[in-house]
Each structure stands twice: as C-alpha cells, then as structure tokens.
Write a structure and sequence with these properties.
The structure is a single chain. The strands form four sheets. Strands 1, 2, 3, 4, 5, 10, 11, 12, 13, 14, 15, 16 and 17 form a 13-stranded mixed beta sheet that branches. The protein is built from two helices and 19 strands. 11% of the residues lie in helices and 65% in strands. A hairpin with a 2-residue loop joins strand 7 and strand 8. It is mostly beta strands. It starts with a strand and ends with a helix.
Length: 294
C-alpha cells in the first residue's frame, strides 16, 4: 500500500498590457495555479496453481485553484477511483496467456468564473462575461486486456489487445475565453463523453546464434478522440477553437537503436530499455561522484 500527497504551485508573470476589451491589468501576475493531489494505492499478488494473479485499487483527489488577471483554466476538483485484477497463466515453456480487467470511475466539479472586467454585449449593457459555467460530471468505464505469447522453435509469436479509457479534463469541459499566450479563443464542451481507445499489437521475433530480428506493428483506434478543433468563427476578434470529439486511428512501429543495432521493440521492451538506460546513467554518475570525492 502507498499513500502520497503532492503540492504544485506555478506563477506566470508578464507586462500588464490591455487586450481587446480587457483594460490594463493591475499587476504583473498573469496566471497562478495551485494544485494539491492526494493519492492512495494498494496491490496484492497471489499464485494460484500455474496462474499468477495480481489485484489492486487506487484513488486520487485533486483540488485546483487559479489566480491572476489572465484566464485559461477554471477552479475545479477531480476525484478518480480505479480497481483491477490481472492474471498470467504459464502453460509449459512454450505458451503464456495473460488477461486483465479494470473498473474506473470519477467526477469533475468545475467552478463558475466571470471576467474581472466588463465586455460590451450587442443590444445590452456591458457585462462581466462568464468564461466558465459551474459544472459537475460523473464518468465510469470498464476496460480490459488480453495477450498470448507462443514459442515455435526459433520463433516467438506475440499478440495483445485491449481497451483504454480517459475522463475529459476540466479545461476540455469548461474553458471559455481568450488564450492570450497564443491569441485564440478557446471554448470547452460540457457534453464530452469519456475518451475510449482500442489497442492491438502483434510481434514476431526470430533469434538464432546471436542474431535477432523482430517486427512489432501497433495500432491504436480512437472512436471519440478529444481534440481542440479550429472553426471558421471569430469571437472578440480572435479565431474560435472548440473542444470536440473525432475518430482517429494511430499506427505505430517502435524502431530504436539498441547497443548500436536498429531494432523494432514492443511497448514492454521499450520501457525495459528505458529503465536499463536510467540505471546505467545513475551507475555512471555515482562512480564519477565517488571518484571525484576521493
């Protein structure tokens, strides 16, 4: 089990200059962000016959507060919970099966925000424009993964498939204002559905007398990918960008140079190589520091 707390603080300062209907700001603090995150996780492992079973759960609570005269992200709270169970079944030395299922749920609560200055409105008096409406959304999903690893002589065949899930974040749901960093008007979409993805990869590895060759294609399909999409509309003299959901397919082949040899790696192998590289960096740095200290 593990319990953690993290505090993040960020300040962005710039020369106070008027933009559009916004008068000259009263100070140099354009934006401030303060985030507090509390997390708790627990994992258990159990061997059941030839099957290694792993189960766990995690919960995370975020509290985010903003400040300054510039607006891009509203105050919000976010709560997320996930629980999973996964198994790895070894059927002899030539066949391994794996599978897992996970349940996730969470909520996003967004605070209402209005400009500190007034903006003219057609047919009415100037008003303090609401850039973010108060909103509370709840999301949940069940995801899964399956895999098989089969050895046939000098060949190793691998295949994996799975489903992923991501909750929309507060900015995607509730932003409504000018992003002065890149001078465009951004508007969220309170009706966004959770982003769903389907992944599949297959691998063929040949090894003989120190020579290894592999091919590992990877496909990731998003039926409702969340993105910031430009529109032909203009608000307050700036182009309007809306958060919307699109369909997208991403194909990937992970080619890397491993010990001066080009190789196509699986996602697991890529992560393993990265960890090995970081271990080597720490080892060399420690040796250097020890040598310098002597």
């Amino acid at each position: 089990a593990c319990l953690g707390w993290q505090a993040n603080s960020r300040r962005e300062r710039s020369e106070p200059v008027s933009h559009g209907y916004m008068p000259k700001p009263p100070g140099t603090l354009e934006r401030s962000f303060d985030k507090h995150t509390l997390t708790a996780t627990a994992t258990v492992r159990q061997q059941v016959g030839m099957c290694a079973v792993r189960a766990g759960a995690a919960i995370e609570r975020q509290v985010n507060r903003r400040g300054g005269w510039g607006f891009i992200l509203p105050d919000f709270e976010q709560l997320g919970f996930g629980a999973f169970v996964a198994g790895r079944l070894v059927l002899g030395s030539d066949l391994i099966l794996s599978a897992g299922v996970r349940f996730d749920c969470g909520s996003v609560g967004i605070h209402s925000y209005r400009d500190w200055h007034k903006t003219p409105v057609d047919g009415a008096d100037s008003v303090f424009m609401e850039r973010s409406a108060g909103l509370n959304r709840w999301f949940s999903a069940v995801t899964w993964s399956v895999g098989v690893n089969r050895r046939l002589g000098r060949l190793v065949l691998k295949a994996n498939a799975g489903k992923g899930f991501r909750m929309p974040i507060a900015k995607e749901l509730g932003t409504d204002g000018v992003n002065y960093s890149i001078f465009r008007y951004e508007r969220g979409n309170a009706s966004l559905a959770p982003e769903v993805s389907y992944q599949a990869d297959a691998g063929v590895v040949y090894a003989h007398r120190g020579v290894e060759a592999s091919l590992t294609p990877y496909v990731n399909y998003f039926p409702n990918y969340i993105c910031l999409n430009p529109t032909p509309e203009y608000l307050e003299g700036l182009q309007l960008y809306r958060y919307t959901q699109l369909q997208d397919t991403v194909g990937v082949i992970m080619l890397a140079i491993d010990h001066k040899v080009p190789k196509v790696l699986t996602l697991k192998q890529m992560i393993q190589k990265y960890v090995e590289f970081q271990d080597e960096v720490v080892r060399r740095r420690t040796q250097y520091d020890l040598k310098k200290a002597r």
